[in-house]
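A note from the maintainers: we've had questions about how concatenated examples are separated. There is no special marker in the raw files; a new sequence line simply starts the next protein. For clarity in this README we add a label.
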Amino acid sequence: MTEEEWLVCASPNEMLETLRDAANQRKFRLFASACCRRLTPHFKDECSLRMVEISDLFADDQVSLDELNAAFDEAAVAQEAIHLEGGDAVDQASAEAVLGLREGLEIGQVFEGVDEVAGALASAAVWELIHRPGRHWRETEAECQEVEEAGASKEFAVLAILLRDIFGNPFQPVAPNPAWRTDTVLALARQMYESRDFSAMPILADALQDAGCDNEDVLNHCRDTNQPHVRGCWVVDLVLGKE
């Protein structure tokens, strides 16, 4: 993959293949957790969310492997209960996705769950489209096909954006400058990292600029109002000295 392809790629699978030999497991895990957090509205039990939270802490060496395994066991039991109780496709796929956050991280399982959720939601939209009053289903067949195909691809395009938020541009790595790490910069970065509230990113950009940072990639990433940020954001990691 070239740098130009990386910057516009909408397939996180292809992007991960590019990173496979260079990226560390912490960032892989934080990305997988970020994918699962997008399924939070569909979690039917606290165990799934706890698995995601424990996975984040495990990535930062804040909980033990035993605690991760215990959270996984609880999430697996909850997922099985959803299955036995006849939960719908979205419920089941969401619960299954978080099981990919196990010890031997299975991003493929996370992606599979995300794909199933997106497909199920798209199918529901298609169902409503077909039964729109006054329209025969044959008149909407092509439109339904388009909705079904767009469902998963749209979600994975968002995940590709999150992947770039975490890994930045591997073709143009930015070296950390100790001078940027003023008290204000560090305080802002730590607060956002811990709270997962990244609304202060533009303020971080101002603080970095005041500290002498003139790197356009860093400043633009902070100030881009269309860029979502998650734990592991490459600029915040750079400031905090996380790898």
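[label: protein 2]
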Amino acid sequence: MICRPHCAACCIAPSITSPLPGMPNGKPAGVPCVQLDDELRCKVFGQPQRPAFCGGLQPSAEMCGTSREEAMVWLSRLERATQPV
């Protein structure tokens, strides 16, 4: 599946606990990654400094839904469901 243009739900909704360029402590859930450009594309896509978490998160019909809003809801629910107790 190809990413939806101007979405970036996967770069906003989940938390990232590993360092990434410009965010040495990772990022909290719901906060846009600083590596998003004006078109909501990843500036470090395909580069070695891109976190493994990001590379492992692959678009799917279930995750992306039919809109950016659906993707944000799905990813936000997954984030909450996987938080440590």
